[in-house]
Amino acid sequence: MTAEEVHAILLEEFGSESIVDLKLDAIDPWIEVRVQDIVEVGTFLRDDERLHFDHLNDLCGVDYLEPDAKKAKKFEHEPHVEVVYHLSSVDLNHRLVVKVKVPRWHDGVEGQLPEVPSVSDVWKIADWHERECFDLVGVHFTGHPNLVRILCPEDWEGHALRKDYEFPLEYHGIRGK
Fold first, then answer.
1. pTM of the model
2. Among residues 159, 160, 150, 156, which one has the least CA distance to residue 170?
3. Domain with 152 in it: what CATH number?
4. Element (H, E) at 132
């Protein structure tokens, strides 16, 4: 099943308020879902017998800060963070990419992490993927059963895959740069 066909099913089920966008000309075509609907849409994608997206291959976060002058002509955007879900159906042998977009900071307050509902109750493997995204990109997954760092120490400051991240000069007496 193609992304376009899945998009049509999702539009029929949830409407254009929840199913925000479809990008077919990307290398991996994707569907954008309104952030507050990701759990409900994810559950539908998993449980609907036409779709049966029973496997979350990957979940990652991407920080889109201001583009540089060269890229701005091709890719204009407001600064934001995306959470990208790579799904597949083992039985039906099809794949799908779903995205949610959120502002870089919750309520526009710098330092307050953006919030995305956890899909760890939909796909159990999301537990680890969401922890990694929290740790490195700084996305707070609401409703996650154990949202703690998975790669960096608990007292690490910042999120290393944020575009404006500054590597600390020293950590517990060890010089970095």
1. 0.92
2. 156
3. 3.30.460.80
4. helix 126-137
